[in-house]
């Protein structure tokens, strides 16, 4: 009796999300771009620093309007969740359509 209904091909392709292989190199690129953008904070912002300041201020203001005056401890958590969902949506990694299609093909 086959307990696991997935084929070897499906299990092998778990790291192949949405047709694009996602691995540590992708996360290193994201982290590297953040480090490069904010490595030399200056009084007159550069393009990368200006972008990341805008993102952080947006998350801080969003937290303040939704939570109220006790927003301080929640900003890192909300920021992490917001950026994770945002980057996952844009990279196509939140809904791995290739895995979903493979599973439905195995069952049919």
Distance between the termini: 18 Å
Number of strands: 2
The unreliable regions are none
**Tertiary shape:** flat
Rg calc:
20 Å
> Largest sheet, if any?
2 strands, antiparallel
Q: DSSP strand (E) fraction?
A: under 5%
Q: If helices are DSSP runs of H or I spanning 4 or more residues, what is the number of helices?
A: 5
Assign the structural class, choosing from mainly alpha, mainly beta, alpha/beta, alpha+beta, or little secondary structure: mainly alpha
Helix percent reads 55-70%
Q: Which series of helices and strands comes N to C?
A: HEEHHHH
Overall pLDDT metric: 72
Describe this structure in words.
- Keywords: Membrane, Transmembrane, Transmembrane helix.
- The chain crosses the membrane at residues 74-95.
- GO terms for molecular function: proton transmembrane transporter activity.
- InterPro entries: ATP_syn_F0_a_bact/chloroplast, ATP_synth_F0_asu.
- The protein is mainly α and 108 residues long.
- It contains 5 helices and 2 strands.
- A hairpin with a 2-residue loop joins strand 1 (16-17) and strand 2 (20-21).
- Helix 2 packs across helix 3 (47-67) and helix 3 packs across helix 4.
- It starts with 7 loop residues before the first helix and ends with a helix.
